[in-house]
């Protein structure tokens, strides 16, 4: 079941991190080189300090990511934003 896009989602607020659900950027050259890609961005729904709340526009997965140094990261890690 796909979730709807969050009502707080705004294309102007983006983050470039790997989606832990669909991993759609796996074979993208730009993402592989850790550059911002025009296709594989995520909605930055909100943040609470260093914790980002994100949604993938492709698969609509919602998740949170702690960006503090040393915090556990999902496979793929964060791209510079």
Overall spatial form: globular
Report strand order across the widest sheet: 1-2-3-4
| Class from helix and strand fractions | mainly beta
| Helix run count | 1
**Termini separation:** 30 Å
Number of strands: 4
Average per-residue pLDDT, rounded, comes to 86
Parts with pLDDT < 50 across at least 5 consecutive residues? none
Strand content range: 15-25%
Q: Helix and strand string, N-terminal first? A: EHEEE
Describe the largest sheet.
4 strands, antiparallel
Radius of gyration: 12 Å
Helix content: under 10%
Walk me through the structure.
This protein has 81 residues and is mainly β. The protein contains one helix and four strands, in the order E-H-E-E-E. The chain has one helix at 29-32; strands at residues 14-15, 42-48, 51-55, 62-66. The protein has a four-stranded antiparallel sheet, with no helix packed on it.
Secondary-structure map:
Elements: E1 14-15, H1 29-32, E2 42-48, E3 51-55, E4 62-66
Antiparallel strand pairs: 1-2, 2-3, 3-4
Summarize the structure.
The protein is mostly beta strands and 81 residues long.
Features:
mainly beta; 81 residues; globular; single chain; 5% helix; four-stranded antiparallel sheet
């Amino acid at each position: 079941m796909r979730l709807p896009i969050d009502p707080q989602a705004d294309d102007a607020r983006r983050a470039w991190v790997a989606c832990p659900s669909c991993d759609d950027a796996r074979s993208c050259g730009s993402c592989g080189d850790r550059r911002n890609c025009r296709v594989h961005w995520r909605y930055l729904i909100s943040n609470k300090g260093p914790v980002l709340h994100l949604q993938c526009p492709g698969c609509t997965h919602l998740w949170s990511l702690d960006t503090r140094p040393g915090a556990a990261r999902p496979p793929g890690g964060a791209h510079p934003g």
